[in-house]
């Protein structure tokens, strides 16, 4: 079920991006909505698990490591994760670098899923909501390029396939790790989530005007995540997750 959801979220996003990718406003709105959802999941689900664990007091450095790791990965992806692909010329984004950056990003996010006991956990849904707009942008970029018709589609399909399989592969690897390492991986992913969502939400608007649509979408994303949080069973603090 988890693997199917992860793969479907990427395939659905790429399909929508391929056919509706020229609608830049739609991509932006999806990103903002997912950012509101993601930052709420991060603060209400991921960080509480991190800081109520036995190693909680020393895990702040791993959160910072997650932020720094995402900044490094964005040197490869050129900001795909928060919708910056249209600021660069096509030749400025190398498919191999994009593939590596997105794969590492999604792979690390998948590792903590190995210890998720509940189907449709908020953490899983956070990744799914996060995958949709990224995949939308990915599909728009890969399949609507001017030079797409002149080149083989297989590299594009390979990038999509690797991105779709990255989180399931991370989850598979996570089964071989000691469950006690879960808080450390969650802390790193929490830093990644925090960086991406905050960049999307707090980026300056044109002329610094109030964007009520953006505020509304953030509130909607936050509300959806809070609903998931309320209906999600949370283990008693001090018990194993």
TrEMBL record:
GO terms for cellular component: membrane. The keyword Transmembrane applies. It is a multi-pass membrane protein. InterPro entries: ZIP. The chain crosses the membrane at residues 26-43, 55-73, 93-111, 123-143, 155-177, 184-202, 214-231. Keywords: Membrane, Transmembrane, Transmembrane helix. It is found in: Membrane. GO terms for molecular function: zinc ion transmembrane transporter activity. Pfam families: Zip. PANTHER family: METAL HOMEOSTASIS FACTOR ATX2 (PTHR11040:SF198), ZINC/IRON TRANSPORTER (PTHR11040). This is Zinc permease. It comes from Chryseobacterium carnipullorum. The lineage of its organism: Bacteria, Pseudomonadati, Bacteroidota, Flavobacteriia, Flavobacteriales.
């Amino acid at each position: 079920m988890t693997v199917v959801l992860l793969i479907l979220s990427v395939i659905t996003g790429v399909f929508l991006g391929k056919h509706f990718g020229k609608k830049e406003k739609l991509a932006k709105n999806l990103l903002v909505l997912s950012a509101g959802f993601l930052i709420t999941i991060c603060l209400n689900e991921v960080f509480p698990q991190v800081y109520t664990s036995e190693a909680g007091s020393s895990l702040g450095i791993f959160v910072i490591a997650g932020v720094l790791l995402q900044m490094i990965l964005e040197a490869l992806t050129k900001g795909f994760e928060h919708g910056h692909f249209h600021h660069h010329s096509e030749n400025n984004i190398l498919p191999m670098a994009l593939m590596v950056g997105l794969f590492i990003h999604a792979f690390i996010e998948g590792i903590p899923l190995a210890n998720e006991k509940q189907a449709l956990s908020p953490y899983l849904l956070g990744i799914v909501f996060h995958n949709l707009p990224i995949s939308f942008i990915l599909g728009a970029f890969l399949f609507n390029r001017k030079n797409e018709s002149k080149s083989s589609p297989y590299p594009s399909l390979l990038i999509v396939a690797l991105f779709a399989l990255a989180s399931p592969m991370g989850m598979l690897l996570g089964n071989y790790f000691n469950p006690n390492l879960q808080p450390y991986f969650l802390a790193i992913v929490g830093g990644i989530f925090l960086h991406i969502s905050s960049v999307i939400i707090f980026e300056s608007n044109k002329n610094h005007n109030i964007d009520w649509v953006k505020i509304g979408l953030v509130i909607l994303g936050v509300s959806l995540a809070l609903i998931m949080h309320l209906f999600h069973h949370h283990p008693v603090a001090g018990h194993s997750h």
